[in-house]
Amino acid sequence: MEPAGCVDLTGTVSSVHLLKINGYHFTATMTQAEYIKALWDFDGHAWEVRCYPQHPDSAGFSWVALKLILLGEAQAHPPRKVRATLSCRLVDPTGKIGASEEKSKTSAFSRPQDCSSPILLVRRDDTKLSAYLNNDSVTIQCTITMFKELDVVIPAPVKEQEGPLPIVPPSDLHQHLGELFLSQNGADVTFVVGGESFPAHKSILAARSPIFEVVFFGSIKEGNSWRVEDMEADVFRAVLRFIYTDDVPAAELDESSMAEHLLAAADRYGLDRLKVICERKLYAGINVDTVAATLALAKQHDCSVLKARCVEFIVGSAERFGAVMATEGYKHLAARYPLVLVELVKAAARGRKN
């Protein structure tokens, strides 16, 4: 047989952990150099995430800051350079509020003890921080994404006399999990939403959502019955179906306001793929009547691409700007975000300069 070929590709792998700081008010006594650390073995690399509760900035304010340190790589002589991104955001283990804006830093690591620059997550005096305090504990969702070279072996062509290779069938895992969702066999938790009950499986929910992971397997450890407030039963049913099948039927997204409600729920439970699916649906449906409400939703749930598209649409022409300002949706937007008019005027001015 002819020898196989080899080509270098760049791949990415990610891992998510939750860093919980108990007794947060005691961190006020820590010095600038003191930190809380978490060790993290991931894809053959050993990492350390350090949280500095009293990290100063150039203006003298104290921040909750995080750094990523490479401790070592298994079986690498000499060690290979690896690029990694640390992304962090505050989460509410109870699921009552959505996650905070995500912040990240990408660094190159060549040897053990290489360290990233700090991520300034939130100022200690920021009022938003208090919303994420639960029994004097703060939970930070940390994601490490590694960019590395992969050695991919390309097999030599198979000669006819060796016979055809068997065809690998497409994955049907989502179908099996969808059947489990419908059958409810082995369910060990029940959600009550709008008077309806939804049996589910803790392990599946925790594997898909960092919020459910904390709720069911963290220190909180909720019981087997959980009441969900501020959400309609149809929306929660769609969220559960997505968790099991990784899909949302297009017809379901076409229903009135479903995309808006699902986006809010996805942000609430840390379902990033579902959030992007809903963003794309709302992006395609922007018009004079919907853009103000969509912009408010994008601002509330940190959807930067959707927000930029809404602003671009509104300031595209003076006539359209005036038409949007005459809608009820714009009145609600201006009442909730009073500075939105200033942002739009600045965007319009930049557009005229360009």
Automatic annotation (TrEMBL):
<comment type="pathway">
    <text>Protein modification; protein ubiquitination.</text>
</comment>
<dbReference type="GO" id="GO:0016567">
    <property type="term" value="P:protein ubiquitination"/>
</dbReference>
<dbReference type="InterPro" id="IPR002083">
    <property type="entry name" value="MATH/TRAF_dom"/>
</dbReference>
<comment type="similarity">
    <text>Belongs to the Tdpoz family.</text>
</comment>
<dbReference type="Pfam" id="PF24570">
    <property type="entry name" value="BACK_BPM_SPOP"/>
</dbReference>
<protein>
    <recommendedName>
        <fullName>BTB domain-containing protein</fullName>
    </recommendedName>
</protein>
<dbReference type="Pfam" id="PF22486">
    <property type="entry name" value="MATH_2"/>
</dbReference>
<dbReference type="Pfam" id="PF00651">
    <property type="entry name" value="BTB"/>
</dbReference>
<feature type="domain" description="BTB">
    <location>
        <begin position="187"/>
        <end position="252"/>
    </location>
</feature>
<dbReference type="InterPro" id="IPR000210">
    <property type="entry name" value="BTB/POZ_dom"/>
</dbReference>
<dbReference type="InterPro" id="IPR011333">
    <property type="entry name" value="SKP1/BTB/POZ_sf"/>
</dbReference>
<dbReference type="InterPro" id="IPR056423">
    <property type="entry name" value="BACK_BPM_SPOP"/>
</dbReference>
<dbReference type="InterPro" id="IPR045005">
    <property type="entry name" value="BPM1-6"/>
</dbReference>
<dbReference type="InterPro" id="IPR008974">
    <property type="entry name" value="TRAF-like"/>
</dbReference>
